[in-house]
Amino acid sequence: MTRDGHTVLAPGTPPEAPEEVLPGAAAAAPVPPTGRARLSARARHHRRLLVPLAVAVLLLQMAVAMVTTAVGQTPTIDEPVYVGTAAVYLREHSLRLNPEHPPLGKLVIAAGVAAADPRFDRGHDGDQSHLGRHLLYESGNDPWRLMLWARLPVIALTLLFGLVVFTFGRELAGAVGGLGSLALYSFSPDVVAHGSLATLDVPAAGFVLTSVWLLWRARRRPRLYLPLAGAALGAAVATKMNTLAAVPVLLLLAGLSVWHARHTAAPSPRVRLLARAVAGAALVALVAVAVVWASYLAVDPRLRWTPVSGQVPAVHGLRGQLVGLLPFPEAFRDGLRTQFGLENAHWEGFLFGRHYEGSLWYYLPAALLVKTPLGMLALWTAGTVAFVTAHRLRPVAPYLLLPAAVLLAAAMGGERDFGVRYAIFVPMFGAVAAVGVLALRRRWAPALAAGLLVFVAVSSLRTFPFYLPYANEAFGGTARTHERLHDSNVDWGQDLGRLADRLRDRYAGQRVWLVYKGSGVPSYYGIHASDPRRQPERKVRGLLVVSDSSAAKAEGRLARLIRDSREVDEVGHSITIFRR
Fold it and tell me: Can you tell me the distance from the alpha carbon of 346 to that of 359, in angstroms, rounded to the nearest whole number?
């Protein structure tokens, strides 16, 4: 089958072998090309150049968006923890901090921290949150410079995952499909927002997608791609523990790939095929386990781990037994126990104006509905339907749809309704799944897909550089996200620097009362404010500045203060300024 001058293989079809020249056969005399043939060859050559040029343009605009966003944002809530832990990895080779997340993602961040070469206080013995703030604000370092360097490796990794998305889409639907997938990925507000932060969500999801892509390729060359898929899976688990939910699915897909490869090459008895499939899955598992161990050994070759008293909760029942059976270092198992302990803590959420306790099972689908461009939602839906219904695409459906579905189901069962970052794998897998639209074989499908892609790009560019609080047009756009969602969907402490600029430019000399949700230190940025919750309401006069996440869950005194104030300004669509 051909599309746009390129040969496109149906899913699972091995590439054709090159033509052979028989030994001793005389070579045919070259035929001088005609003028029309020369023009046709030149056109094909130009088309081949257009594809890498388009890839470069899409990745360049994504890089500009992410770097610009990274330069303008102050530390979000989680970032000082990861940056501080990365500094401890570099200077002390210790696993003592942030055990609830494995080391690999923080080792990626550590590459940027090492380049920044910050001053590090070895005598500081605070917890992980205090150490991060101490490193950024109390050790003589420039937090703007240090945070940018810490974010750059994650930005680079996010761009590399874009190449995986493009290659996966091209293998399924040709160059046009690959470019469409990359366009959806590069214009995704959520991927740009979280790919520009020194956090773990995008790296973990990207490693899972890379493993799935390599498993798909293993249908043709299992000996080459199964170990690589295992390494990518191990990198995902060594970055964030929520990816453990995908491990059984990916091992099943590894066996499926081996079964297909062996059955296609030379039909064998089913028992032998099954044995080889199990062996292939075991190989992927062994490589993944080795990568997890390597990430811990890279921090501390002696694997010293002594948890602080009370740091690791006891986990009983089936969960406790399963954790004890995991073939990982004790620090990993204790980190997983810590995660279970966090799930049992008391949490609050906010959705569509409702402040609630606990969690809602439909929170993540609802949040994705708000924070995904409308054109992207349409392409995801149409592509998913095509993969399920089109006979030609069904072989790839388990690879694209099953891991994402299992990860989403696991995330929906969590107790922390904090944002779509817990489902950041959805726009990544969705970008590839959208190529199914091109398999509908309708004349209107390419034009419709192109129109929706333009709609996505325009919606994404309109929110620049405020990607974190993005909401699509059906829900009022970025300016109204805070009315429907909170926390990392809107306000994660990223606009403290912008708030300082706004107060200095427009409200110099005025009394400021601040309720800020974040890890930044307001006084460092020149914000000298008091907490209105600690003073009688009658004394709170002047500017009342409230992070939107705090306003969303405001109760008691803060709720009354906001109700009796007049909104006069907003900063970054995440902080509201009132006047009293």
Answer: 10
